[in-house]
Amino acid sequence: MLTVQRAVSLRPYTTFGIAANADYFAEVASETDLQTLLQLPDLAKMPKLMLGGGSNILLTRDVPGLVVKLSIGGIEVVREDDLHIYIRVGAGVNWHELVLFCVDNNYAGMENLSLIPGTAGAAPMQNIGAYGVEVEQLVDHLEAIDINTGEKRRFAHADCQFGYRESVFKHELKGKYIITSVTFRLDKTPTFHTRYGAIQETLDEMGITDDKLSIRAISNAVIKIRRSKLPDPAEIGNAGSFFKNPEIPAAQFDALKTQFPALPGYPTTEGQVKVPAGWLIEQAGWKGYRHGDAGVHAKQALVLVNYGRATGNEILALAQQVQESVNRKFGIAINPEVNVL
To answer: What is the rounded CA–CA span in Å between residue 51 and residue 222?
Structure first.
């Protein structure tokens, strides 16, 4: 049953665990419920915030208007061909549970994205990625509801305008559409991505030889890596990686390399080099820093944490201090991956 509540605490609905309230709050489990909610006269002109898993947002204040928790479920195979299988996934499906579903059914492509917090609907909006794979490589199309009209629209892959941790839903169409389902194209024959991060090293430690390599083995390796260095939001409030890895011109990278020989970098396109933000933050001296209940995680400097009662503004102030420090030391701007409200 569709219910609209007043003055609801959002602490349980975000992984940072920040104390903030919503003026109005509703949870929807179907497209029909969502369309009905959007058509309610008293709510039509209110500002609206969509929440999936709440794993990529930092709240610095109470949220005016209506907060909608998307809990649209369902995973179904919609078609297949000789090479691929296509699955339609409700926006509220937990991302890691979706990855495990694919691994269990031997649908290849998502295994490197194991244990990323969040939901299927938020994945293309943010274009999540890890260990050499980005979700844009897997999206066939998605469906979304126009917030103003309640009409459903299909977005082909090209319509989403994917970029590094970017999509059209973070820019031109921000706040205009609500993603309700995503159709992913998975491979029947896997292509293994093991040359990123510590995947190959972890596979070796697990005794996985080339003849035993599988998408399940890679998924297990990624889970092991992430659990070893990333805090569990159920224990310490966080939103995973707080900053995006910056890309800088190759000439700038080469100049910095003479000053900082250990500086890691990964060539991308058009003469750019991607530099790990976590390395920059650690070298600037922030790893393990804590002020009150706001801190930088002791095992992964890319993660800002709430040890209990930090406010959103305290976390934001820390983030800004980290940004300024990295810029002073390296001349590199690092930008938040997390949405700040």
So the answer is: 26
Active site residue 201: no
Given the residues 165, 181, 185, 226, select the one marked as catalytic.
165
Q: Which of 55, 114, 219, 241 is catalytic?
A: 241
Residues 69, 97, 145, 127, CA torsion sign:
positive
- Catalytic residue among 143, 247, 314, 337, which? 337
| CATH hierarchy code of domain 75-187 | 3.30.465.10
Cα(295)–Cα(281) distance, integer angstroms? 13
Q: State the residue for tokens 């966080």.
A: 238
* Catalytic residue flag (residue 97): no
Q: What is the pLDDT of residues 89-121, one digit of tens each?
A: 999 999 999 999 999 999 999 999 999 988 999
Residues of the chain with CATH 3.30.465.10: 75-187
Q: Where in the chain are all domains bearing CATH 3.90.78.10?
A: 237-340
Token reading at 19: 């104390």
Class assignment of domain 237-340? alpha beta
pLDDT digits (tens, 9 = 90+) for 125-172: 989 998 889 999 999 999 999 998 889 999 999 999 998 888 999 888
Fold of 4-70: 3.30.43
Q: Is 337 a catalytic residue?
A: yes
